[in-house]
Description:
The structure holds two protein chains of two kinds.
Chain A: H1 2-22, H2 32-50, H3 57-79, H4 81-88, E1 92-96, E2 99-100, H5 102-108, H6 112-121, E3 130-135, E4 141-145, E5 168-172, E6 175-176, H7 178-183, H8 188-197, E7 206-211, E8 217-221
Chain B: H1 2-44, H2 48-64, H3 66-72, H4 75-93, H5 97-118, H6 122-125
Helix pairs in contact in B: 1-2, 1-5, 2-4, 4-5
Amino acid sequence: MSISFIRTLFLYICVIVALRIMGKRQIGELEPSELVITILVSELAAIPMQDLGVPLMSGVIPIVTLISLEIVVSFLSLKSIRLRRLLNGRPAIIIRSGVLDRRKMQQMRITVDEVLEALRENNIDSISDVKYGVIEPSGKLSYVLQTPYRPTTAEMLNLSPQDSGLPYIVISDGHIIHQNLQKLNKTVEDIEQMVKKAKINAPKDVFLMTLDDCGNQFIQAKEGRA
Amino acid sequence: MRRLIVAILLLAVMIFGCFASYNRLDLLTQELAGHVLESDALLQTGDRAGADAILQETYHLWSDHRSMLGALVRHNELDDIENLFLRTMQAMDNHDNNEYFLQSRELYGMLLHIPEMELPSIENIF
């Protein structure tokens, strides 16, 4: 049993490192080849975990090889449009000016029900509201709305709302994150003052505090500490 | 770019490792099989003590490399060879020449079989 345990620990670390080397992607945004690699890596790691007669290298070597190949192929895809299209396919426009392209839908093997479902998920209730509907290589439907149906922006209303920046976490579960403070050119004393203004005793009583470079802040105290 | 360099280096290490591991396995098993044949030849000439000494030495050489072999070869194959060594040595102790030659031949064949599994040949790949 100890062998199973140690192998599982080792392979877990190996898979985490391998996926980390592969790069940051959410599961829903993986290209087809990346999704296949991710599934394969987990299957390969399971083999030496379950079969103790198989050498550990029988799992590690294929994992390392797959990840390395994926990185090399990704790099080549960046440089070559042809290779990228070969591996990932092209986006396909299935809605133009509110009209479905039936031929394209047949080529992509997409049904009307699937298109309507994807539109509803994006709070679009009619195909006629969409100027362009595009099936991306990942299989997701992206869209550009017709001008009258686009969400109103501040610019359209001649408004100038307060600017906002990228929020950084400066306190997390009572701990001050000094690295982010440096990025915002703030000191610990500045944060303590902000916390006191929010009627909280000290940074250690804060559950979450975010701050951006435009001065916008969010503070939430720990329960019972406000 | 750094990831790409790491990936290419890892692939190069894998490729080099494939050839190096096969080469290492081949040399070791050839040496072991050679010693087994040597032991056979000595026993056939009647030198039991000499044959036994070589067999014991071969077994120690095998045991010394067991960890390395465990990282490269399926463990049931290694267990089979381990058992064959023990049976061969027991046959030697029992002064049972027929049994000894039977077991040593099988041992010889198994030892030479191991690197064949690592060889990137058409039949192994497909």
